[in-house]
Every structure is written in structure tokens, then in C-alpha cells.
Design goal:
Layout: E1 4-8, H1 12-24, E2 28-33, E3 42-44, H2 49-55, E4 60-63, H3 70-79, E5 86-89, H4 94-97, E6 108-109, H5 125-132, E7 136-140, H6 145-155, E8 161-166, H7 169-178, E9 185-189, H8 195-205, E10 209-212, H9 219-224, H10 226-246, E11 251-255, H11 266-282, E12 289-294, E13 297-298, H12 305-314, E14 319-321, E15 327-328, E16 330-331, H13 333-342, E17 351-355, E18 361-362, H14 363-374, E19 380-382, E20 402-404, E21 410-413, H15 421-436, H16 442-451
Parallel strand pairs: 1-2, 1-4, 2-3, 4-5, 7-8, 7-10, 8-9, 10-11, 11-12, 12-17, 13-16, 14-19
Antiparallel strand pairs: 5-6, 15-18, 17-21, 20-21
Helix pairs in contact: 6-13, 8-10, 10-11, 10-15, 11-15
Length: 465
């Protein structure tokens, strides 16, 4: 017996999906739900889903309104009485929003991506393409979540060359396989802490733009590895910034984090130091324009809550939440990478940008929505805050001093900081001299960060590297 499908949304996405289903599968489209459109095949409004499912013997519900905001999706999923019902959602990604036609392959199982955030941010792709076209681009951390998406988007904008840099051999191998047909891409295994290797790449390619996405980012792991965090996030960033000035790179963009605001952990402190180094070096840079971009949580990235929840669901394990009140901002990889590209040309030298990320979301609310939509038999387990973890994250030191840019969804922070750049850089260099040679203990490294004004906690167990 053919399975019967109910499609939510009788717009262009829903009708294109219905046409594709009828053309290439043994599924039967019973009709649509829609709050606006009416017709013989519209069986009710979104609130009527349970009645329609029972009356028309529906087996699958496909949510096909990709422009819908996350709250609408959450509310709709929350009203469904699951039983044997299967649910899938067309994701609210940039690629989907810009496609002319939607097909059944675009559907995903309901997951965190469909339950968080706000309406997808539609960036000015034409301006980004105008900026990238014909330029020589260097991307660090190119095999990572954000870096690889950056590479994908930049490669489609007509650059002269994209130099992909990462120390992760396996990741670079797979990245090379994905882009084997792109003649403009070059792949180099290099560590950002290796200044000589980086200098060679800068000399060989003379990049016009550097997107610095390489970083150690996992908070609990960096709490136990502060020396590695300092060497990579501070030392590696300093190498790249100084080489960008020496080789007269036009634009340098550093990927930062919301954890750099009032940091209470090693990772956040190292990223904040990176921002301050950028401001210090930008003052005397005659050619290079520096910018940084702060994100909330990128929910499709490696180690994200989305990945954790998905793995736990697949293993039929309880969904783990650190605290009932933990709240986070969220964004997608598409939004993050587009923001990085646009930040290279929407502001002034040494500006730090943040995205309009909407309202923060409680992690436990995500878990509850996900359990209800996917497997009501799963439990949610509160496991306690991890070392260095905040209850809430911030995007700016002074929210009332956040100003607009040319893009209505991108804002520049105007945090007022008076600091002696010379003294600050001397402190940084003194710390790096010790960590680079491992002539300092992990505990002493944390104390140095504390002395620089960061409320970093001493971890209970510390690893040297």
C-alpha cells in the first residue's frame, strides 16, 4: 500500500515537492495544509493537522515552507500527536531559499536546525560576488565546519585562486575530493603556529584577502589545554596578522566568538586577546584593513549541540542538557560564512561585527521540541555546567553602542576600550614566548590570563598540550 503524504504549505516549495513526489516515488500526496491558500486540495489550516491526519489516513507530514520562522515550525510540531506518523522538513538554508524548484531530496529529518533561531538571513550575494571576483583568497581552517563552507561559497564567486590552509590532513583530503573540479583551489597542509610555512604561502600567492577561521574552539577541552589554546588562538592569529601586514594583504577577517565578550573561559579569553591584537596592529597598518566577526553557536558545526543531539537520538540515548536555564544564540553555517565574507567590505578598519541573531533560545526547549517531534520515548538528562561554561552568552560589551552597517542584519560594535597597545602587545609576546617553548605550566598559563584581566577559572585537571 502506498504511503499517504500531507504537505504543509501550498506555495511554490510545497507544489514543487508534490510534483517531484508524484513523478519519482510510490508515495501519494493526499493534499496540503495552508493558513492562507484555499482550494480543493487544501485540507485545512496548520492547526488542523491532527484532524486531517486522522481523517485522511496520513502516514507522512512534509513541512514545506522554507521561509517560515523557527517559532512557527516549533509550534506546529508541538501540536502533532505522533503515533506512527513520520515527519520531515525542508531546511531553512540559503541554498534552499534560492532554489527555483524543491524536490524530495531536499527533505531532512526534523532536527535542531529546524527548531532554532529566526528567519534565515538573506545576505547580499551580489555584493559579495563583486568583492571576491578575480581576487586571491586565503582561508585558514579550511577543512573545518565554517572554513569549508567559506571555501564552497567563495569558490562560486569567481576568485582567481582560493588557498585552503589547514593542519588536518584527513579533512583537507575530503575537501580536495569535494572540489576536485575547481581549478582555482589550492590545498596546503600547514599549522598556523608555523610562521615559516605561512610566510612561504603568503609569498607564493600574494593573497588579497585572508579569512582566518582556524581556531581551537571547544570550551571544556581548552580549559584542560590552555597552553595549546594560547599557542593556536593567540600565537597563530598573531602570525597571520603580522604576515598580512608584511605582504600587504588588503583585507584580513578574523572569525571570533560571542565567548570573547566578558570571557570566563580559556577559549573566550584567547579569542578576546585576538580581537585586541587586531585593534592594536590595525592602528599602524598602512595597507591592510582588519575586521573581526563574532558569532553565537553555529549549529551545524563539528561538536555543536545539533550534532550531539542527533547522535544521541540515533543511539536512543537521553538528550543531555547542562542546565535548565542555559541559553544561547544560534545561527547556521550559511549565515555565518556569508557574514564573514561581507564583513570584509561593510565597515571600517578594526571594526568588530555581530549578526542580528534574534532572541536567544533555551537549550532545554530545543531538546523538548526535538524529543516531541522525533521520539517521545527519549528522556532529557540535566548533567550540570561544564568547566568554563556560561549560563548566558553576550554579543557585545555595551549593547547600546552597537551601530548599523550597509547590511541591515550586520551590526558593528562600538565598545569603548582604552588600553595601551604597546604594553598589551608586550604582555602577549611575553606569554607566547613561554607557551611556545612549553617553559610554563598549564596552571601558570591560566594565572597569566587572569593577570591580563580575564576571569578564567583554574581547571581541576590540566593537560600540557
Amino acid at each position: 500500500m502506498n504511503k499517504r503524504i500531507l504537505i504543509v504549505g501550498r506555495g511554490s516549495a510545497g507544489t514543487a515537492l508534490a510534483n517531484d513526489i508524484e513523478r519519482r516515488s510510490d508515495l501519494v500526496v493526499a493534499g496540503y495544509l495552508d493558513d492562507v491558500v484555499t482550494g480543493d486540495d487544501v485540507l485545512g489550516a496548520l492547526r488542523d493537522v491532527n484532524e486531517v491526519v486522522e481523517r485522511h489516513s496520513i502516514d507522512l507530514v512534509y513541512f514545506a515552507i522554507p521561509s517560515s520562522d523557527a517559532r512557527t515550525i516549533r509550534d506546529f510540531l508541538g501540536t502533532i500527536v505522533l503515533g506512527r506518523l513520520e515527519i520531515a522538513v525542508i531546511p531553512r538554508t540559503y541554498e534552499i531559499l534560492t532554489k527555483e524548484s524543491i524536490n524530495i531530496d531536499d527533505l531532512t529529518d526534523v532536527d535542531v536546525l529546524d527548531l532554532v533561531g529566526r528567519e534565515p538571513v538573506k545576505h547580499d550575494v551580489l555584493s559579495s560576488r563583486d568583492f571576491i571576483a578575480g581576487k586571491r583568497i586565503l582561508v585558514t581552517g579550511a577543512a573545518g565546519s565554517i572554513g569549508s563552507r567559506l571555501v564552497r561559497q567563495i569558490a562560486a564567486m569567481g576568485p582567481e585562486v582560493v588557498v585552503c590552509v589547514d593542519w588536518w590532513e584527513n579533512g583537507m583530503f575530503y575537501l580536495g575530493q569535494q572540489f576536485s573540479s575547481h581549478e582555482s583551489l589550492r590545498f596546503h597542509i600547514a599549522d598556523v603556529t608555523n610562521r615559516e610555512a605561512l610566510d612561504h604561502l603568503f609569498a607564493e600567492y600574494s593573497p588579497d584577502v585572508v579569512f582566518h577561521a582556524a581556531a581551537y574552539k571547544h570550551v571544556p577541552l581548552m580549559e584542560k589545554n590552555p597552553i595549546a589554546a594560547v599557542n593556536n588562538n593567540i600565537g597563530g592569529s598573531l602570525n597571520l596578522m603580522e604576515l598580512a601586514i608584511r605582504h600587504e594583504v588588503k583585507n584580513f577577517v578574523m572569525v571570533s566568538t560571542d565567548k570573547a565578550v566578558n570571557p570566563v573561559n580559556v577559549m573566550g579569553a584567547t579569542k578576546r586577546i585576538g580581537e585586541l591584537m587586531m585593534e592594536s596592529l590595525a592602528r599602524d597598518a598602512e595597507v591592510t584593513s582588519f575586521n573581526a566577526v563574532r558569532f553565537g553557536n553555529v549549529i551545524q558545526s563539528n561538536g555543536s549541540v545539533m550534532e550531539t543531539f542527533r547522535n544521541q537520538i540515533a543511539a536512543k540515548q537521553p538528550l543531555t542538557v547542562t542546565h535548565e536555564d542555559v541559553t544561547r544564540f544560534f545561527m547556521t553555517l550559511d549565515e555565518a560564512s556569508h557574514l564573514i565574507i561581507q564583513s570584509a567590505f561593510v565597515g571600517a578598519n578594526s571594526d568588530i561585527f555581530v549578526l542580528d541573531m534574534g532572541e536567544p533560545v533555551k537549550i532545554i526547549d530545543l531538546a523538548k521540541s526535538l524529543v516531541h517531534a522525533v521520539d517521545p520515548t527519549l528522556e532529557i538528562k540535566i548533567i550540570g555546567l561544564r568547566p568554563g561554561e556560561k549560563m548566558y552568552e553576550e554579543l557585545s560589551y555595551e549593547p547600546d553602542k552597537v551601530g548599523p552597517t550597509k547590511n541591515p542584519k550586520i551590526f558593528v560594535t562600538r565598545d569603548a576600550f582604552d588600553f595601551n597597545a604597546g604594553e598589551f602587545m608586550s604582555e602577549v609576546m611575553a606569554l607566547l614566548k613561554l607557551t611556545a617553548t612549553y617553559s610554563i605550566t598549564a596552571d601558570e598559563t591560566v594565572r597569566r590570563l587572569q593577570c591580563m584581566g580575564f576571569a578564567v577559572q583554574m581547571p581541576p585537571t590540566v593537560l600540557v598540550a
